[in-house]
Structures are given as C-alpha cells and as structure tokens.
C-alpha cells in the first residue's frame, strides 16, 4: 500500500470509529427516531449498501419526506420496492399503511435476509413478499387491488426495467425512482421522456452532507454535539442524486 492509500485507510478507520462512538453514546435505540418511518425497528445495526446513522436518526433522504407524506394520502393497496436493501422503505411503508401488501425485490441474498428479519421484527411479515431479481414480467404479475406505489433504487437498472411498454401497462401506478446518472448520464432524461405522457413528474435533488449539518435538526432529539454532525448525516453519495416522482394522470 502506498502513502496515499495508507492515509486513506487511516481516514476511513477514523470515520468508522467516530460513527461507532455516535451509535454507542447517543443512539440507544434500535428504532428510527424521526421522519415518516419513525418507530421502524432495526433487528440489528446493519444496513445493506447505505449508511446506518442517518436512517436511525431519521434524516435519511429527508429531501423526500414531504413528497412521501403527500404520496401516502393515496392509501396504496400495494407497494413494490425494487432494490429494497435491508427494508427501510419496504418495511417502513408496510408499517404505516394498514393492510398494504409489499412486494420487495433485491438481487443481493444478504439484503433479502435482512429485509425478512426487519419484516418479522416489525410484525408485518405476513404482508411482505420477498423476491430476487425484478423483470418487466414480474411487475406485470403483481395483482394490484386498487393502486400501487413503485419505489425504485436499483443502481441504474431502472433504465432497462421501466420501458415505455411497462410504463403504459402500469400507467395507473405512482412511482418514486432514484435515478443513477453516475452510471449512465442518459437515465434521468430518458425516463422523464418515457413517463411524461402518462404521469405528472417532479424532480427532487439531494443536498450535500455538509449542507445538512447547517439545515438539519434531527440531532437535537438525540442530543448529539455539533462536532459529530457531518458523520451523523453523511449518506456517502456520489455527487448529487435525483429522484423522479411520477404521479399517474389517471
């Protein structure tokens, strides 16, 4: 390992130690403390592909909190979560929407295990159906009783999954899609072009981890000192993330 690699390793180790200190000293609960999924229980302090502390304190993807509250007025009968990870959205939505059925997809076997454990921990496992990969045919097979919300965070696969044909088939559903232009710069524009005929579109953009330390107040509930705020709120994103909310015109 060269000098720069070693310094990077030491920096990463220091961050991990500080995050562990925050968790050990200030977050003494396994439940999400704030936000739309307040009360959601984590069976263990483990996530899949994302930062733990923002989820526990309730600041994770806070840019979406208002939009989520508005979407939930639709009283969805089904939630379809493509790229569910450990289940933050899948189980969180199952917990707060009575009688909703959740179809959660993730190609990572570890994510499936964690999501199943979270469903059991929150007593919603009878309404959660776990799957691996998600294709157009899988989306078509899901029985929608009234209206479904499709949540997607699938690392660029959204460009291949949400074709013009499947969007037409699911034109009565609403969508919340995190796009990943960091993998393919065409994704956001292409999806907007595809959805514009059947859905009203809203774009939401992430704010930087540094900006969160000045604008977020989630830490006050836990009494976390200002010196820890960057590592508390950091979601470790690559650049600016975009979410596209697609509301059915039907």
TrEMBL record:
Gene Ontology molecular-function annotations: methyltransferase activity
Gene Ontology BP term (one): methylation
Keyword Cytoplasm recorded: no
Chain segments annotated as transmembrane: none
Keywords carried by this UniProt record: Methyltransferase, Transferase
Segment forming the signal sequence: none
Keyword Methyltransferase assigned: yes
Domain of life: Bacteria
InterPro entries the UniProt entry points to: SAM-dependent_MTases_sf (IPR029063)
Protein name: Methyltransferase family protein
Native source organism of the sequence: Algoriphagus yeomjeoni
